[in-house]
Specification:
The protein has 297 residues and is α/β, with parallel strands linked by helices. The chain has three domains: 79 residues, Winged helix-like DNA-binding domain superfamily/Winged helix DNA-binding domain (Arc Repressor Mutant, subunit A, Orthogonal Bundle), CATH 1.10.10.10; 98 residues, D-Maltodextrin-Binding Protein, domain 2, CATH 3.40.190.10; 102 residues, D-Maltodextrin-Binding Protein, domain 2. The chain has eleven helices and twelve strands. Strands 3, 4, 5, 6, 7, 10, 11 and 12 form an eight-stranded mixed beta sheet that branches. A two-stranded antiparallel ribbon has the order 1-2. The longest helix is centred in the first third of the chain and has 24 residues. It is globular. 35% of the residues are buried.
Length: 297
């Protein structure tokens, strides 16, 4: 068996993307070259690795076994490269970091900026996901580090504290709800909302909360940041759900009324999760410690 690291990375990207074409693009390979590599891997093993369907590709049982070993081998190769990078200048490290919306928009930019300035040889692949998706990705080795809500189960993972915040409802001072100080999420679903793009992790989370009580969020405007939500809410376009830290900051510059949400999920304890810190490359361990040390700043 003679698979190289390019073969393994290609197979990993193909399965994650659900497409040989998109997997090849991620690795900057021509489609013909990528297809040939996959066929050669199947020929060496004597069994198909992918189910090829009109909608894309899915790993066969043999493909899932290869995927599991490929992830472990690539992680070990990355760890080796990172540790050798402590001695040899010029080698670069790559960290795959997954985060929920709250941490990504409100808390990660400053500590990540400081870390990258101090580690010019390290790149970070940052992606927004739902907390339960992040936990699954960390557990199966798809990602190195995750930032998740404290409400999600993290059995089997190592956990470090990151931040504590809560979601609040923001409305314009002239809005019908502006006389209230506290309300349940279910009681505000008759009103128009200003929110994030429907594909964002937080918007999916809020939509799921509404779905569970048989309701839908009346999303009038979709934006890309909490600050933009606050700006339109202050103009009475609709109401919004944002982190309390964002609401406090925005209220200093615009007319905005904050209402506490009585739902348990509104309190957000954010945690750092890893599969096993000791197995991470040195620079990834440095990032975990840097993020954990930034708690409360």
């Amino acid at each position: 068996m003679s698979f190289d690291l390019v073969d393994l990375r290609l197979f990993l990207h193909v399965v994650e993307a659900g497409s040989i074409t998109r997997g090849a693009e991620r690795l900057h390979l021509a489609l013909a070259a990528a297809s040939t590599r996959i066929r050669n891997m199947e020929a060496v093993l004597g069994t198909p690795l992918l189910h090829r369907e009109r909608q894309g590709v899915q790993p066969t049982p043999a493909g899932r076994t290869l995927l599991r070993h490929a992830r472990l081998m690539l992680q070990q190769a990355e760890r080796m490269r990172g540790e050798l990078g402590e001695y040899a200048n010029g080698l670069r490290g790559q960290i795959r970091l997954l985060s929920n919306t709250n941490a990504l928009m409100e808390f990660l930019p400053e500590p990540l900026s400081n870390f990258l300035a101090a580690h010019p040889q390290v790149n970070i692949d940052l992606e927004e996901r739902l907390s339960d998706e992040i936990v699954a990705a960390i557990a199966d080795g798809t990602a190195d580090i995750g930032i998740v809500a404290g409400t999600v189960a993290v059995s089997g993972l190592e956990v470090f504290p990151f931040r504590v915040d809560r979601f609040v409802l923001v409305v314009a001072p002239g809005h019908a709800l502006a006389t209230l100080d506290r309300i349940a999420f279910a009681e505000v679903l008759d009103y128009d909302f200003v929110g994030l793009d429907r594909a964002s992790a937080l918007q999916r989370f809020l939509s799921e909360k509404a779905d569970r009580i048989g309701r839908r969020i009346k999303l009038r405007v979709q934006l890309r940041s909490f600050d933009a939500i606050c700006r339109l809410v202050s103009c009475n376009v609709g109401i919004g759900v944002v982190p309390e830290t964002t609401a406090e900051r925005s209220a200093r510059a615009m007319a905005l009324h904050r209402i506490a949400l009585s739902d348990d999920w509104a309190l957000r304890e954010l945690r750092i999760v890893v599969r096993r810190e000791a197995d991470l490359p040195l620079y990834a361990r440095d990032l975990v410690r840097h993020l954990a040390a930034s708690e409360g700043r």
